[in-house]
Records
---
Amino acid sequence: MTEMTNFQREISRLLPNIKLLFNEPMAKHTSFRIGGPAEVMAFPENADQLAEILKVSTVLDIKPAIIGAGTNILAPDAGLPGLTVCIKDNLSAVEMVDDTHIRASAGATMTKTAVFAANAGLSGLEFAHGIPGSVGGGVYMNAGAYGGEIKDVFTSAEVMTYDGELRTYTADEMAFSYRHSRLEEQPGIVLSAVFALTPKPADQIRGYMQELAAKRKASQPLDKPSAGSAFKRPVGGYAAALIDQAGLKGYRVGGAAISEKHAGFAVNLGDATAEDVKTLLRQVSQKVYEESGIRLEPEVRIW
Ligand SMILES: Cc1cc2nc3c(=O)[nH]c(=O)nc-3n(C[C@H](O)[C@H](O)[C@H](O)COP(=O)(O)OP(=O)(O)OC[C@H]3O[C@@H](n4cnc5c(N)ncnc54)[C@H](O)[C@@H]3O)c2cc1C
């Protein structure tokens, strides 16, 4: 009997109503619309269920993969063996903590969280409004846009370790830097985050969010599957400008291409494989290096 059969048997005994999917295409759970089947995908509805899943996984020596909204992941064509835990949709409450702080659960979208803040007349999360990921993914990545970053408003996060223990991390403890947090080196699962915001008239906040949405719509290929910016911003330049200068807009490998609209985006033209995207990113990075001497590193998490 395999460890995943044991997992399924044990978790079904402990949590008879938990949603489990088998051989579930990752392409259905990633914004790239790429990725083969996840052997077992679990959808915990709350922290207690997540803790049970993690405890059983630890006993069986299974290391689960965690996905939020899947908007920054390139999942392999061969799929993901073992267990994938999906945080989005469930665990999605957003609530006031006090007059200037809100708590967002990890599965809430950043857009929902930004709208909640705007409705409460609290400014600081406008930048997050058009980022299509979850709060958990945003904290993990220190997501940012238009001059704002999660770390600017972050106060603390409740994080579950892989053996099911709860920790609260402060901003210092999260060791945020550009598109990075401590969770990359010391894995843990974000359950919720508290953000410190500033009172401001709601119509001004909404006006700024609309302005940013219009900028996104005008500049980004939102009609094509992607994972947002394919590369991190390098020291000494902008990835999109360097790719454009290297003449790579529209450059194509199989079904994957550099967007004609925004050179910082790699897009799926319809039938791209993960191998197509990986080859595209590798070749683009190499050509940019030959032209500029600047090495581009992927921002998208390649699994
Ligand atoms: C059209 C488009 C535009 C985008 N624009 C931006 C932008 O302006 N700025 C920006 O920063 N990003 C942008 N992105 C990328 C993406 O939305 C962000 O990186 C986002 O923070 C990822 O969140 P997610 O929930 O989708 O994470 P996922 O893609 O599901 O996961 C990303 C990583 O986070 C981890 N993770 C997810 N949830 C948790 C959790 N609860 N606890 C611990 N780890 C977790 C995963 O294991 C994985 O390693 C864009 C993407 C798209 C498709």
---
Amino acid sequence: MPAFDIDLIRTQFPAITRTNGQTSPVYLDNPGGTQVPDMVINAITDCLIYKNANLGGPFRTSEAATEVFEDAHRAMVDFVNASSTREIIIGQNMTTLTFHVSRSIGRLFSPGDEIIVTRMDHDANVSPWLLMARDYDLTVKFLSFDKETYEFDLDALDDLLTERTKLVCFGHASNLTGTINDVRAAVAKAKSVGALVFVDSVQYAPHGIIDVQDLGCDFLACSPYKFFGPHMGVLWGREEILLQLDPYKVRPAANTLPDCFETGTLNHEGMAGITATIDYFAWLGETVADSHHHQRHTKGNPRRQKICAAMECLTDYEIPLTRQLIDGLTSIKGIKIHGITNPNAMEKRVPTISFTAAGHAPRDLATTLGASGIQVWNGHNYAIEPVNHLGLMEAGGVVRIGLAHYNTVEEIDQTLAVIDQIIQS
Ligand SMILES: Cc1ncc(COP(=O)(O)O)c(C=O)c1O
């Protein structure tokens, strides 16, 4: 198997290679947003130069802008395996889109109906539903996770589901523990009582194949800026469900999907960036993935197949890096990782690793790392349910290191050495 060409990957990212004479930071802040390849930056620039008009005008630049809009929807169809562009709603970010659609979803329900949210989710997949429940007089139930295994016991979901359950909101991968959840199993259970399922794939999207047909959910949200694209959000909704919703929109806006959910003038240059981001994955599939990564992906159009091969290739590269980081952290005295650490279970987590170090406030540790050019997050990272559930809020949450496929073995070694030094001193 040829080695993953990490040098080729890194040269795609100007934030890594163009450093104005300084050393490039070690970007381990990826769960909060990733760096962007040249391909994406160029597409955004190109859009602002040559395609900068509003949509639907009878002139050349508007036609070019309309093409940008359509291309971005087509690209996201391939990324999540949607049935059509009518199912792709592009907007500002995942949080805004979730609040937006929650108003329409809530109108389907009656007082006393029930919804389920989890103790593992980012607040963007909790608060919109709590507020919807308040507005429509719904009952909210929480699905908890095991504090030892950092996984859900899905039998507990059976105990929460009733014939009044209308919606289950579930995370694909946690931005705190890193756990990848069994979405298919949760969907199957939710469907047994006829509930809708809303999946937050924001943390999963940079690391794995998303297939909404296979997952069987009704909604799935992700954010291109977490997977090497521009600061935007994308919501996929199953067409037959979207058609049942009453969109909150201005009267002159089209009543057709997806336009009726895409309020106002969108970020066209960001949309050009989204298409280029998906094409970046396809480029990875073409250039970096190996034949065995391609073997299992013969369904869908050529771009979808390349995206899937790319994701498999990235997983193959990221798993040993994750293991290296976890091994190194667990060997430093006083460090506790709040997530799956079994080296043989790395496929159950994304490379988002949260930890605490006895006697060191997370903010102080992150600040010292930052001063050494190593960029990591600290605090609750909006994962307030899991941080509270794990009893970590008062002590300042966690230090969170998140890997992406442009990180290297040397960067992990460097990071571990600095953490060790801080702890020793
Ligand atoms: C798991 C998860 N869900 C949702 C969000 C919110 O995404 P956005 O910033 O696009 O609203 C984040 C952001 O960090 C996240 O990690």
